[in-house]
Design goal:
The complex is a heterodimer of chains A (about 350) and B (about 180). Chain A is mainly α and about 350 residues long. Chain A has 15 helices and no strands. Chain A is globular and about 55 Å long. Chain B has a domain of about 90 residues: Alpha-Beta Plaits, CATH 3.30.70. The chains are: A mainly alpha (about 350), B alpha+beta (about 180). At the A-B interface, helix 3 and helix 14 of A face helix 1 of B.
Amino acid sequence: MTDWIRLLIDIIFWPPLFQLVIAPGLVAALLVVIFIIWFERKTAARVQMRIGPYHISPRLGGFLQLFADLTRYAFQEIIIPTAVDKPIFIGAPLTALVLSLLPVVSMPYTSTPYYYPLPMDYSLLLTVALSTISPIFIVAAGWASNNKFAVIGSLRESFVITAYELLIVITALSGGVAALSYNLVDIVNAQTPFYKWMIFTNPIAALTMFAAILMATSGFPFEIPEAENEIVAGAFTEYSGLMYGINMGSAYIKRFVYSLLFTLVFLGGWLPYKPGIHLIDGYIIPLVVVLVKATIVMAIISFLRAVYGRFRIDQALDGAWRIFIPLALIGFGLALLEAYMGVYA
Amino acid sequence: MPGKVVEKQTPKPRFINAITGNLGAILVGLKYFANPNRFTLKYPYEYIELRNTYRGFIVLDMKKCIGCMSCARICPASAMKMVKVTVQEGKKPKPYPVINYNRCIFCGMCVDVCPTEALAHLPVHDVVYLSMDEMDLDLERFQQKVESPSVKEGVPVKYVFDPEKGLVKVPASEGGES
């Protein structure tokens, strides 16, 4: 009997499966995303002198509103226009959702080798590579929709993604350069004392990556690809019901994945906690630490929604190519300098 | 005297200005996040007390009405209509106004023109009718004073100006000029 339970635990907590499906994959990501959407609406309301979602559950601050919205999306009719390219129209958002979730499997959440989902030697490169695949399916969804607004939206998406994912790649790799390793476990473990977190030793790269996450995942003030008052809903104009919910959710999940990467590279991952070797102290607790840090990063991103207005597409691209890419290169140079001086040696 | 033509000077975009501007915006956001000033009116749990001169729903005092038809004539939306009613046995039927709220634009001309002040406004603006027929009032219902649902259930509030926070929502019983 005990063997049977042990086997079940081994199967559930088999890292590749556990990380993709439960935490920080699908289930935890959905919970975090629902919390973040509620937090975003409440924060924006607080700053803008409103109340926000309230009426459905006044004692919880309207938290159940999100579940009500989810239920509504789930039961709404999915309308597929006759003029669309059907297989791509249906397949592209689903693929984008799965692919935007995939990088969580290539990231470690503990320093105990038994709980690595994959061999970790090139995990930083793998994570960055996997995270850059999904936008092409959003572009495909917009193209398959056979709609002017959708095409303009996907065009904008491709512009923004080209500029800002380059930034994310450069800044994330600068973390690897500073720690002299593409192994995310080494990068995290190198940041052992508190003041050696890379957000303190390389603030320029951290700031640039933060801004790039904000722009690349089209968070509210910067949702240039789906600017509501300009091009209806951008690439997702023709979608309705659950398909629209999936599209919106995949943007948030992408932001969550980037926040995890930001946490690992710049915020010291599971540090200051030192993982043990057992399931609870070696896998669950460091995972929770990483999740909490990533949620805080997402909450800061959500707070900025209330502060900023929307940029035009030309302003966003101008900012990327003229200001942020030089900044990212300066950050990369700083990382090279740190590697030369042996800060993380 | 014609206006003076002045060339508007736009400040040159400078990197330091971008940094201070962003930081200032974030600080203002944080200030409101820490100390929010929410003045959303939670209707119908709260309502703003309306003054007696408010141009709301109209009520008829049948005893004062002399049946001059001025209200029906002046009504720009043809909402007022006269009906002939026999008030006393053996006398000629007399015209009285009735109103159709489907058409009424609440301009208040009928109240202004009434020579005997038989028509009056009520400080009520939020009455719900279930059908369009119901909004076409007859003489009996035109004399009843309608009640606001928010006044029945809610608490009165008012907005006062606070020198530090701007507009603030306070209970109507508290002092201060709105």
